[in-house]
Structures are given as structure tokens and as C-alpha cells.
Amino acid sequence: MNKFTFLMQPGANNALPETEATRARLLRTVLTICLPAGILLALIPPLTERASPLDPRYSSQIVLYSLALWAAIYVLSFTKYYYQAAWLSTLTAIGTIIMTTSRGKDFTDYFYLLFVLVFAALFFKQRDKFIILLLIILSIFVSPLLAQLESWKDLLYPALTVIMGILLFLVAEEHQREVERHWMDEAVLYGLRFRKLLQDSQWGTATLKNGAITECDAQFARLLGYPPGQLRGMPIQSLLTISAQPAEAEIIEAEAKIKDGSPLPVELLFTPNYHANDGAGVIAIRDITPRKQQEESLRQQAYRDPLTGLYNRSYLMTYLQMQLTYPSPVQQVAVLFIDLDNFKQVNDQYGHHVGDHVLAEVAQRLRSVVRDEDVVARYGGDEFVIVCKCAPEITNTIVQRTHQALEQLFRYGDREFKLSASIGVLPDVRRYTDPNKVLQDADAMMYQQKFLRFPDKKNEQQ
Description:
6-stranded antiparallel β-sheet; Beta-Lactamase; 12 strands; elongated; alpha+beta; Alpha-Beta Plaits; 3 domains; 4-stranded antiparallel β-sheet; single chain
């Protein structure tokens, strides 16, 4: 799935603002009340006289036809054309007043008149209320005249429908232009306020339309290494890579691609223009390289031994658990448990600072004998562990190179030290499920090697 859906799809962010949504809900509430109430009032006259609701002597058929139209209007009120739906329902009510009055008064006259007055007062603005009031007054005077013209009766409702359609079109067009002008002004002011808020900070901002940059400030261009004018028209998707689609007003991490092709870690905030229908909005980014470097430093501190720079026991256990949980189907996983011989004498005789120097030198030598993909960790004290995914012959080579590297003289100032190492080897640990058991068995193998080389150590505590 394209992670830039929230920027690329026109109309993806054209949800109604809260005030508009409230008016749309008001329209649906009124229609919900009026539909059953209108049906009931339309049926009262024929039912009281035990006549058919479709009897031409009554206005019930006209009212029922209007209610069917209102049902369609109710569906329309769930769309962005809810304002046109409100006008259509109002004009339908006025037309029904004219029709029912021309055929003789009944309860529906007063019901629809009350609906128009109450609904207009609640829903429409001042200018629209004035227009509706004029239409009501006109209907009051026109209805008696039309009732006297027999030839108009058959053409009355179609004529009123045409008149309502013309009025609806004129009013809706004017309203749409007014709304667009208002939304455009609001969008411009919002963008200016948003960018003013961020211009003195580390954020760089740009305005978007259909997923492309329309304009940007100097900070935005500087972060990406472009002149400001060169970014105009460029798709934002070619400049930013995000890992997940953000929620509304959510600051997320992303990766920007600067002009020379190198990546730049950034934070990203996109604020859509809810009044637009073309995916427009304002995007802001800022460089978070120092923070990412600090996070990496903290991560290294969490998994690295501070003295030797090797992985620590915590990382070793995590890595081993991963190898046991998801074992390779073809590669063996070997574990080498290394313990320095006679290191305690060096520590006791020359001091811990000399011992620390020796341990750091041991770490460097161990790095030199393994491959880049192998893991070298300090298990604790003078014990080290190597984990490598390789065939047995490669494991044996690493063991031999480790012995050779650690048997070379160690120097500190004018002092020289001769050390060696005992190495316990488990050629393949994929049959294990517990990393602790792996290290226990490797440790036991190491002590077997040590006892073979130094029989006098058998009575020492492990």
C-alpha cells in the first residue's frame, strides 16, 4: 500500500469541519422527524372520512410524493452536497404548501409552514432566511390565485418543480462560490499562521497540492539541498520515505532524500486543508540527525562493553536466543567460549589498570581473527564468547587463529606478558532451545580443555 495515500489522493482529507458536520446532522434530524410526521398528517383527512389516501379530493397524494422526494434528500444529506439538500427540502415544503392550499386547506398546510420557518431559522444564514421568507409570502398570495385557474391544476406541480429547480441551481451556485472563496481565504490565512509559527524554529515548511510542492520556505529547501524555486512542482513522494501512514496531526519519523542522494533523518508533520478537495495542505520537516546519533550512542552503550567495545552479555543472550528460535536450515551455529589463562596473576601483580589494558588488547585481537558477520562478546571478567554461523572447518580455523593471536606477547610500557587461552567449542547449537544451557555447556567444554592443559587446576572453583 502506498504510504503517501494521505498526500496523494485528491479529496482524501475533505471531511467536513465540525461546524459543517453539525449542520448536516441538524438537517438529517429534522428530516427524520418530518418524514413520519408528514405522512401521519397527510393521512389524517382521508382516514377520518374513511377514504383512500390517493383520492384526488385530498392533497395526500401530493404530500406523499413530496415525502418520497424528501427520502431522496435524506440520502443526499450524508454527502458533501448537504447544503443543496437543505435547500431542496425547503423548496419542496414551500411547493407543497402552494399545492395543498390551492386544493383546499388541511393540517399539512400548517405543518409544512411551521417546518419551513423553524428549519430556516435554525439552518440558514441571514441572506438565505430573507429569500425563504419572500418565497413563503409569495406562496401565500399565489396559492389562492392558482386555485381559481382550472387550467393550471394539471400543470401546477410540474411548473413548481421547474421553478424550484431553477431557484435551487441559482442559490446553490452562489453558495458554492461563496464557500470556495471563504475556504480559500481560510486556507491562505491558516497556511500563513502555520508557517509564521514555524519560521523561527528548525522546521522547514512547504504547501502541497495533489501530492506536489506548490511553494516552500528557505529552511525546507536548505534541508533538502535545493534552491527553493527548483522544488516547485516536485512530487513529495520523490523526496520523502515514510514507513507508516500517520494519524491526524501526528509527528512521525521519515527519511528525506537530499539533492546529492544521501539520506537525512527527519520528523514530518502534515496538516491537511480540510476545505480543499485536492489533497492540499502544509507539510513541515526538521532534521533529527543529532537525536538519531544520540539514540545510536545510547543503543551502543546498552549493548556494548564499555572497556573493550565488544558486545556485552545482554546482547549475547538476545542474539543467541534469536539464533535458537529461528535457526538456519543450512548453516551451523558454533559457539566458542574463551577463558584467558593466568590472567589473574597479571591483574594481581601489576594492578587493574594493566589488566584493563590487556583485556582491551585481547578484544582487538579477537576482532582480527573473526569474520565481519561473526559476533564477539565479553561474557564477564576475562571470559569471551564468539558466535559464528559456519561449517566445522571454518570454526576450527577460527579456533586456531584465536590461539595464535592470544599467545603472542602483550606489552604495557616496558612490561611484557605471556598469556594463552582455553577454548570450549560447541560446533552446532541449533538443537538447543535455551541460550543459558548453550553457555553452560560451552563453559564446561572450556574447562575440560583447561584441565587437560593444566591438570593442577582441577581442584579450583569454577
